[in-house]
Amino acid sequence: MSNWNDGVPRIGATLKEDARAPETKSASTLEVREAMDEFLSAFEDFKSANDERLGELERKLTADVVSEEKVARINEALDRQKKKLDELTLAARRPELSGHSETGLASREHKRAFERYVRKGEAHELRGLEAKALSTQPDPDGGYLVPVETERMIDRIVSEVSPIRAIAGIRQIGSSSYKKPFALTGLQTGWVGETEARPQTATPSLAEIEFPAMELYAMPAATPTLLDDAAVNIDQWLAEEVQTAFAEQEGAAFVAGDGVKKPRGFLDYERVADSAWEWGKLGFVATGNEGAFPTSNPGDKLIDLIYAVKSGYRANGRFVMNRSTQAAIRKFKDTDGNYLWQPGLAAGQPPTLLNFPVTEAEDMPSIAADAPAIAFGDFRRGYLIVDRLGIRVLRDPYSAKPYVLFYTTKRVGGGVQNFEAIKFLQFSS
């Protein structure tokens, strides 16, 4: 199904290389199916080209430059096709917002008042509704809470776009931080007979981890013409305008944030060799080859990483890596000649590596000396995201006239909550 140009699959009308994410609110099932067929066909082309390259290595101990370049170009085209497929799949399942979906007089009143505020700047009705509701979330910077349905829409879109949010544990809070206790020493236990005396158990030593919610903002702009157009769904417009800004900032912070005015990413914690692991640090498995996989049986290190995680977390484990690392691993085979990396069997499903799903996070480091380029584990139990309830919007018609700015804020935090659940593959000797 792929068109070829010098051995490289050319993306057709369904997936053009320079096309951006679909502007329509949804993509048809046919478009998604065709995109999936293109992607699977491109993967078969990739396997054929890579098998040819490996055959040259076996015959001549070196691969032809043309073959190497061909595999690299197909690999890049495969990445582009996967990205477009993900965008079409996301658009296909994106819900339409409608005022009819909200129930309750208060919700409908809030929605109408919020729309008048966004379109015309009329805040008196919205101010009265929030005062009547006795909001417990005052914002020192001002602004008004978006309707509940719009907040759900923003959260859903960001969850689907932000790779770490889609796989991590999430807790909603109503205060400025979330504190989670944990035991430094476990409860004392033992076996006793039915009539034997029960010895007194020792009191466990407890500590706590705190996850403060930091402020994340976006500032989409609108023209007066757009705001005056009654056909424009304001809720949908606002949700789609802030999704990219929120998702990109969150994604970077959840991976590598330093915890200063932002969530703390899992890469910011101290890493130690897994044999020396202790609570508060994250363990890693070394590749044994500085800045690269071992030259022979590189897939064995991925297996070592999987089994460095305890079985209770391994059952729900997944790999996290960036696109370039995934492109390198895509060439690996097992001893039977089967590729370790496999595409998802249906649109919307992630690819798998050794039968575990793969999450692509561009903020992960690439393969380099001492780089923890691959993470594996149960991220839902290992990494916690805390969301403070409520997304606020402050309308600013003055700072960038004739455009109207909408200062949109949410409060979010994050950090590692279970240091046993996540391990790294570090490219060090």
What can you see in these coordinates?
- Helix 1 packs antiparallel against helix 2 and helix 5 packs across helix 7.
- This protein is flat.
- It has 429 residues and is α+β, with helices and mostly antiparallel strands.
- The strands form four sheets. The chain has an eight-stranded mixed β-sheet with strand order 9-10-18-15-11-14-13-12. Strands 3, 4, 7, 8, 16 and 17 form a six-stranded mixed β-sheet that branches.
- The N terminus is likely disordered.
Secondary structure: elements and pairs:
Blueprint: E1 3-5, E2 8-10, H1 29-60, H2 65-92, H3 105-120, H4 124-132, E3 144-145, H5 148-161, E4 169-173, E5 177-183, E6 206-212, E7 214-218, E8 221-222, H6 224-228, H7 234-256, E9 271-273, E10 282-286, H8 299-308, H9 311-314, E11 318-321, H10 323-329, E12 341-342, E13 352-353, E14 356-360, E15 374-377, H11 379-382, E16 383-396, E17 404-416, E18 422-426
Parallel strand pairs: 4-16, 9-10, 10-18, 11-14
Antiparallel strand pairs: 1-2, 3-16, 5-6, 7-17, 8-17, 11-15, 12-13, 13-14, 15-18, 16-17
Helix pairs in contact: 1-2, 5-7
Shape: flat
In angstroms, what is the radius of gyration? 25 Å
Spatial order of strands in the largest sheet: 9-10-18-15-11-14-13-12
CATH topology of the domain at 266-383 and 419-426: hypothetical protein PF0899 fold
Fraction in beta strands: 15-25%
Uncertain stretches of 5 or more adjacent residues: 1-27, 95-103, 134-141
In CATH, the homologous superfamily of the domain at 266-383 and 419-426 goes by the name: hypothetical protein PF0899 domain
Q: Tell me about the biggest sheet?
A: 8 strands, mixed
Order of helices and strands: EEHHHHEHEEEEEHHEEHHEHEEEEHEEE
Which architecture of the domain at 266-383 and 419-426 per CATH? 2-Layer Sandwich
The counted number of beta strands is: 18
Q: What is the typical, i.e. mean, pLDDT? A: 81
Number of helices: 11
Distance between the termini: 43 Å
What structural category arises from helix and sheet content?
alpha+beta
CATH top-level class of the domain at 266-383 and 419-426: Alpha Beta
Kindly state the percentage of residues in helix: 25-40%
